[in-house]
Structures are given as C-alpha cells and as structure tokens.
Amino acid sequence: MTELQDVTLTVNGRRYTLAVEPRRLLVDVLRDDLGLVGTHIGCEHGVCGTCTVLVDGASIRSCTTLAVQADGRTVRTVEGLGDGAGLHPLQEEFWDKQGLQCGYCTPGMLMRALEILEQDPDPTPERVREGIASNLCRCTGYQYIVEAVMAAAPRMRLAAPATQPTTGAQA
Amino acid sequence: MTAVERPAPPPVRTHKEDRRWVGKSIRKVEDPKFLRGRGGYVADLVRPGTLHAAVLRSPMPHARILSIETAAAEAAPGVHLVVTGAQAAELTGPLPDFGPDPTKHTWRCLAVDKVRYVGEGVAVVVADDRYLAEDALQLIEVEYDPLPPVTDPEAALRPGAALLHEALESNCAYDRQFTFGDVARDFAEADVVVRDRLRWHRSGGQPLETVGAIADFDPATEKLTVHTNSLSFTSYMFMAAGALGIPMNKFDVHQVPAGGSFGSKLFVTKPTVIAGMCSRILGRPVVYLEDRVDNMSNCDHHGSDRVYDVELAVMRDGTLRSITIDTIDDYGAYIQFGVGHHGNALAQVTGPYTIGSVQYRVRAALTNKNQQGAYRGFGSEVNNWMLEQVVDKAARELGMDAAEIRRRNFIPPEAFPYFIPSGNVYDSGDYATVLEKALELGEYDRWRAEQARLREEGRYIGIGLISAQERSVFSATEFWFWFDEPNAPVTSSPESVTLGVDATGTITATLYSCAFWGNSPETMVAQLVAEEFDCDPHSVSIIYHGLSGGLPATGPGGSRTTVMLAGAVEGASAKIKAKARRAAAHLMEVDPEDLEWAEGGFQVRGVPDQRKGLDEIAAMLHMFKHSFPEDLESGLEESKVYDHPYTTMPAPDRSDLGVFYPFMGNACHVPVVEVDVATGEVRILAYAAVHDCGTLVNPRSLAGHIVGGTAQGIGTALYEEFVYDDEGQLVTSSFLDYSIPTAMEVPELRIGHVETPSPYTPHGIKGGGEGGRMMAPAALNAAVNDALAPLGVRVTELPMTPDRLRAAIREAGAAPGRG
User: Fold this and answer.
1) At residue B481, does pLDDT exceed 90?
2) Any idea what the CATH number is for the domain that residue A150 is in?
3) Which of B609, B325, B344 is nearest to B470 (CA)?
C-alpha cells in the first residue's frame, strides 16, 4: 500500500483534512470518506458527466480526478445546492418541468446547469442545450432539462429565495 | 381463423368521467429525494465494514480454461476471498434459463470449464475495498486454450461451426415455424410479393447506473438479506433463491431505486448470486456492484440482434394480405429468456393492419457474445421496424404514398376487440386519428414542399412516417407457448397493493415490486389513490415492501406497471370503502346502502351535511372497535392482489397463441432528417410523435417517456452498437466508443396524445413506457430512405452509421462527394 497524503478540501463550505492514497479518486473521497453520496458514478471514463462537481467554480469529472488534485480547492456538490430544507431554483424547476426520471444523472446535471447559469445568467435555449451536452441523461431525452434550466435562469437572476412549492397541476 | 374458439373478453367497464387527479401532470412525488442527491441507490447504501467484490473477466471470446492460479491474489493485501468458476459451481446452482433445454446450455454466475464471450466472469475477489479487489484481480493467472470464435449468427448455424455448448450438439437453441391462417392461399392470390432482407444490430439499455447487490448473510439465523436494484419482484424471486440454494423463507430482498433500467435490470440474478455466495462464505456483508465495463460486456442484457428475410403479399390497390417472416436472432452465449423476445414480436406481428395471415419462423443462434436480455421493446420494436420497412417498400413498388397505404390497411375503430392472426387481441384503438394528428403536428405537407425545394439545392431531406403498435401488460404465457411440453397453464403475473388509512386519516400505500427505475410508480399510485379518496396525491405516503412477507408482485416490464398498479389500487380502495361505508352507516345509524361517497367521506344520499369523513371513520375504527359490530375488525387497511385481467390459453397445436398482450397502444412518428451524402451524417431537423396509450394518468410524465424513449431510439437508429469484431472482441466496451446520444443529437420533439381508453382496465389506462423506442428506429430509417430515394438508395441495416450510409451510397454509384 502506498503512503497516504494529506489533502485539504473545502466541500460545500466545510473544510476537511483527510489522509488519502494518491490513487484515490475524488468521487470516492466525496462518497465514501465524506458521506456525500449525491455525486454518482456512471461510466468511470469521464464521458457521461454523472459524477460532475464544481471545483473552484468549474465543472470537473470527479471519477477521473484524483483527490490529491483537488487539494486546497473548493468543491461544490449537489448537497450544497439547496438551502437547508429548501430547494434551489434549479432543483425546483427540474421538479416542476419533470427534468428527471430515474434521478441518477440529476446531481451532475444540476451542477453543470449551475455552472452554465453562473457563466451566462441569461442564456438562449440553444446555449443551454449545447452546454448540457457534456452530460448524458438516458431517461429524459433532455427536452425537459433544457426547459427547467431556462425556467431557473430568471429566478436565479432575481436571486429568488428557495421556497417549498405546493402541489397541484402544472401551468 | 374463424374456427378458433376463444373465451369471451372480460366485461366492458364504464369509466369515471369527471376525474380529478388521473390525467393531471402533477409534480412527481418521487422527485424531491433525487433532486437532493438522496435517492438511496444501491451504491449509497454500502455501510462501513462491507467487503467489496470484483469479477475477473475473460479476455478470450471462446476458450477452454486449463487452469486458474489464485494463490497470489489470496495473499494480496486486504483480500478475504477468491472464488473461481469451478468453486462457484459447487456453491451455487445454474442461473435461471427459460429454455428450451436449459441443461444443454447451462449458465452460471462464473464460467466453469470454458469461457464463451469476452467479458464472461471467471473468478471473483472479495477485499476490504474495490481498489484492493481490483489489485488482486491482476494477480490471478488463467491459462486458456483458445477455440475458434463464432461471431456471425448465420455462420453459427452452418454445419461444422465450432460449438458454444457441446451438449446441445448445435448452435441453434431454438427453431420453429408457426403458421397462422391461410398463408399459401393469400400469397397465391397476391398481385405482388415484396421481398426484403433486413439487419438489426445489437444495442442495449445502458442506464447510467450499473447493476449491484449488497448481500448480508447472518450465520446465526442462516438468513440472507439482499439490497439490490434488480430482480422484479416477489413472484419470481424463487429464481435467485434457487440459484443460491437458499430456502425462500431464509431469503429477504429489499428493492432499492434503480438509476435507470430500460429493461436491463429485469430479473438480473447474477450480481445477487455472486454477492450472496461470497457473503455466505464469509459471514459478512459483501457488495458486488458492476463497473461500466462489466455492465457493457458481462451484463446479460444486450438487445435484439436479428437478420430478417421477409415476404409481404400485396394487392395492387395496396391491400396487405399476408406476411412471411424468417428471422435468425443472435442470442449470444446463453439464452436466459428463451425466445420470449419473439413472443413480444408476435403480440403485434401484423402492426395496426388487417393482414390476414402470418408465417413466422425464428431460429435462435448461439455465438461468442454477451447474451441478450431485455431492452425497452423486448424485441417488439424490431418487429415494428421490420414491418414498417417492408410496408414502405411495398408503397414504393406500388407507387403509393406512405400515408395512403397505411390508411388503406388500418384496423377500423369499430373492429375492436380485434384478434390478430397469431391469436393476441388488440383491445381498442383509433389508428387513423393518430396518423392524421401526427401529419398535422409534424407539418407533413409543409415539409414535403420544403423537401422538394431543398432538393433543387442539392440537399437530401427525408420525411419518415410510421404507424406502429405499442403492446402493454404481458402475461408470462408468452414465455412458454413456444414449447409443446410441459403444457403449462395460463399464468397471471399479478401485482399487489396494500392501502392503509391510519387513525388520523392519512393514507399509506405499500407496493410489492421493485417498481422504481425511472418510471414513476409512486406518482401513479398517489394519483390513483387521490382519485379514489379525494385527497392530495402529495399527501399519500408510499412504502416498498421487501420480499419476506410480501404479496405477489411481478414488477415492471412490458409496460405493465401502471395498469397493474391501477387494478390493485382500485381493488384495495373498494375494500377500504366497503368497510368504511359499513362503519359510517353504523355511526350514523343509517342503512349502508343509503350512503354515497363524496368529497373524501360517506354522506347520506342527497344530505351533504349528514356525513362522516374518512378521517373520522378511520379514527373510530382504529380507536373504538367496540363501538362496531363484531365482524368489523380494528383498523382500516386492505390489500388487493390484482391478477392479469385478460389472458387466455394458446391452442394445443399452436395455430393460435391466445391472448397475452391485450392492451394495445399505437403511435405515429414523423421525423424529418437531412442526410449529408458526402459524410453519411444524419441530422434531425424536426420530429413529431403522437401516441395513444389509452387514458393518461400524468400526461407530462408520459410525454417525458416518449421523448426519452425516442432519444434511445435515435441511438439505436444512428449511433449505438455493441460491435464484436471477427475475432470476437467487443470493440465498443465503454461510453467512449458506444455512442449514447447527447442533447445535441436529440431534437426538440413535438408530442401529441390521443386517448382511446381500454375497455378492460381501470380508467382505460394502457401501458406506455416503451413507446418512444418502439417507434423511432423505424421512423428514422424511413426518413433516411426517403432522403436517399433520389439516389436509388434504401438502407436496410441499423444503426445507420456514417460508414454504412456511405457504403450504401457508394454502392448505388450515383453519389456525389468523397469516397
């Protein structure tokens, strides 16, 4: 067994120092060591984007990133998206527009959508579609994901507070 | 076919007209946990101290295993156990195989004396973590004696081919021809016989989550507890218990959400058997979670892989009289579901048309490939594609419009229930309305004009138009009408629900199958319960019961979940209401017959202020039993085991296969494509899809499944293929080379719905989860053929990769561009 290395990560605003094997993947550290199982593993080749998290604000594939590469950096995962019990506008719009079916790609897709909207708060649907082409979804055919991201954009521009939506028929 | 005597259909139902919740696109009740990353998938449930299993895969397509040396792996750090295939065969039985002759092509969790495809497992290592387990895999030395690889299904059936399974003495696992109706007469009377040879290559569901199982054997109680995202559910769990050699009453399985399935997680026993075997040896929890390469190369759920020779007997006016279908299906190394995929095809073999007779021959070829399993459509999507291809060819040869030849042959709305030649029934439908709506939604006439205009500019635009069937709610009879013996009776494939109204009046529904894999059983049940009890669907709580003590449940598959759950909810609700009615009548001192259900309670007919709400009735029944007559027990909880509502026996001579897939949806897809004839690239310019799967429960959810299924169909039509080279190597074993459509390959769809309620199901619901993929490959092939028609090119092979399109264009010799 190789020598362990100390790694410091700030994940969703909380600082962690861990001793990890140099070969250990960031996704395994997030899931197994920190218990943040919202970041999922899909293809293990960096293709599908299921494992997407933001490192210093930029999306990366945590299944092909070593934890030691993220040393000293800030990581954001789906667990940091909502505000306590409330949902982030992106999460709410994914719910409202049915931008998910099995939910497995959803955390990665949400983090990628967050990055897109942080870079371009007022995107065209074409830009969103092109942007999420980094991430595979096997269920939805992407249409309602694009709709959800477009619906979240104005709410995020207005920094709308996250509220618990009521039930009922959709518009 | 008039001679066939059939049991009468079930009574025609009268459906509730003023539905409040069924038909509303409510937000799905499952979603909040998934949006927060708290789905609770199998990988999320691995607790500290659980050991991790990894499987050594064969690099050889076909070879004898001469020896396996495991000592170095056993001595590696963190390793607890190494089991070879031969050792596993001592510890577990064969995996379930629906036959025929399962003993002649025995399938086990690990290969024993020879490997039969690249990726087949030969040994398993269990270690403290997955890294250490994979380290140890590299220390196992296997000596192989290579055998000739068999990769072509037609060559596999020729005399002299190397044998996959020597005991079978052939690579043909099944060969039978069925004749339904007077095929000879219909062909003799035909004006034209249209012939076609078609090739559909294998693709697969490839959900983003692989299959896994966490097994925990307790040596004290000898009970094995498994958490898995597969195995659909209580009714068929004996298959896994049998393979593990564990008594059913010592075997408990808990279903967890699946991160997608599309059929690929249907009855997947191997991970459960591997994890269960290892946990039993070690007396500790063991997780076996496939990695992506396992899931692509050793998954047992590749899709259909067929060669077709088809003849269609046609009259000059366009009437379709008869069809003969001769198909060879490349099943790979084993044949777990038998040729059940062809049962699916036979359920709707003649499509929406009044074709009067059918001859169907299927040969199942065994080759050195991963075996077939289930993929959205289960083989019926291939039949749709084949039929629409040959109907289009007939239209071309007769000089008819694609819409016109279809209209001319549609089963008319007044002809239902309609028995097709193979014996299955179509309950209801309105195919012409679906077609006309699709032509309108897809702006068919405008695109035809645009096509003509752009052709002047040298652009190759094509418009596809297909009308095809979407069978739903299987009866498992389709898995054994293939055999004359044993003459198994008709089966039910039930589904169960328990409804409980607690002392405060809130409702909990318990489900007994591993229903969630991206469909929305909880939302469906919540809406159906809300419809019954006038409550908010988001107030209904849903529980999944495990195997132990669970009621009969078959699980999803064959687009059955919503219909079967609806029947179970209806039945359990009726029991709850019957008890609540008696209780309310007793409390109000009136005759139960004088009460009516209204707004969440029972009231005296016509006297709305004399009533008891369900909450009041439930509180009394829970707390004050002795206020009621002797036979009213405490509490308010009822269960319903809902049996298949309409299935009948096949004829003894198999001239008629009986009713086994009765609730028949229909759809029309109209894609518009542009083919770049220089590169062979296909671009989708527009796409309209109109589906009729009866009464909709959640229209947006169904539309989402149509879009998603169509996206998969786009993959099947254009990009996705498990390619085995001539040496038997799988050359597409990761998402780098197995190309799944991204958002850039899937267009914005226009979705339309027609609702022709089933006369035989609650609310008139039919299944609809598979529809998109059952239509899109046929529709896109039709569109590409339409685009290339000016070049005299007709593509007969899927997927239509740039290579294949360029080859077809080159062969036609009329093409501009490179190559």
Assistant:
1) no
2) 1.10.150.120
3) B344
Is B816's pLDDT higher than 70?
no
In chain B, which residues have their Cβ closer than 8 Å to the Cβ of A105?
Answer: 208, 259
A168 pLDDT above the threshold of 90: no
In whole angstroms, give the CA distance from residue B182 to residue B177: 14
A108 with A131, same domain: the answer is yes
Query: What confidence tens digit (pLDDT) does each residue in B516-544 have?
Result: 888 899 999 999 999 999 999 999 999 99
Dihedral (CA of B322, B390, B559, B215) sign: positive
Whether B559 has a pLDDT exceeding 70, the answer reads: yes
Contacts of B37 (CB under 8 A, 6+ apart): A36, A37, A38, A39, A77, A78, A79, A106, A107
Choosing from A22, A50, A78, the residue where a domain stops is A78
Residues 662-701 of B with CB under 8 A from A: 700-701
The answer to whether B647 touches B492, Cβ cutoff 8 Å, is yes
Under an 8 A CB cutoff, do A138 and B749 touch? no
Among residues 106-165 of chain A, which lie with CB inside 8 Å of chain B? Answer: 106-107, 110, 129-130, 132-146, 165
Q: Which of residues 56-115 of B touch A (CB under 8 A)?
A: 77
How close is the nearest chain B Cα to the Cα of A35, in Å? 9
Domain containing A115 equals 89-157
Measured distance between the N- and C-terminal CA atoms of chain B, rounded to whole angstroms: 53
Count of CB atoms within 10 A of residue B86's CB? 16
Of B519, B536, B749, the CB nearest to A167: B536
Amino acid, single-letter form, for residue A170: Q
Report whether pLDDT(B776) > 70.
Answer: yes
Chain A contact for B297 (CB, 8 A cutoff): no
Residue A71 shares a structural domain with residue A93: no
Cβ–Cβ below 8 Å for A133 and B208 = no
Is A131 part of a structural domain of the chain?
yes
pLDDT digits over B646-688, tens only?
999 899 899 999 999 999 999 999 999 999 999 999 999 999 9
Nearest Cα residue to B21 out of B391, B473, B535, B468? B535
Question: Nearest by CB to B208, which of A82, A138, A142?
Answer: A138
Over residues A108-134, the mean pLDDT reads 98
Please tell me the predicted confidence (pLDDT) of residue B636: 98
Tell whether the torsion through CA atoms of B627, B629, B631 and B636 is positive or negative.
negative
Please report whether residue A165 resides in a domain: no
The string of DSSP codes covering B375-419 is -TTTTHHHHHHHHHHHHHHHHHHHT--HHHHHHHHBPPGGG-SEE
The one-letter code for the residue type at A44 is E
Helices (DSSP H) in B589-698: which residue ranges? 614-623
* B203: its two tokens: 């693709």
Q: With a cut of 80, say whether residue B689 has pLDDT above it.
A: yes
Question: Is residue A171 in some structural domain?
Answer: no
The domain tally of chain A equals: 2
Note whether A85 contacts B: Cβ–Cβ < 8 A: no
What chain B holds in terms of domains, given with CATH numbers, is 42-147+211-289 (3.90.1170.50), 306-476+651-812 (3.30.365.10), 494-642 (3.30.365.10)
Measured between beta carbons, which residues in chain A are less than 8 angstroms from residue B257?
Answer: 102-103
Average pLDDT of span A11-26: 97
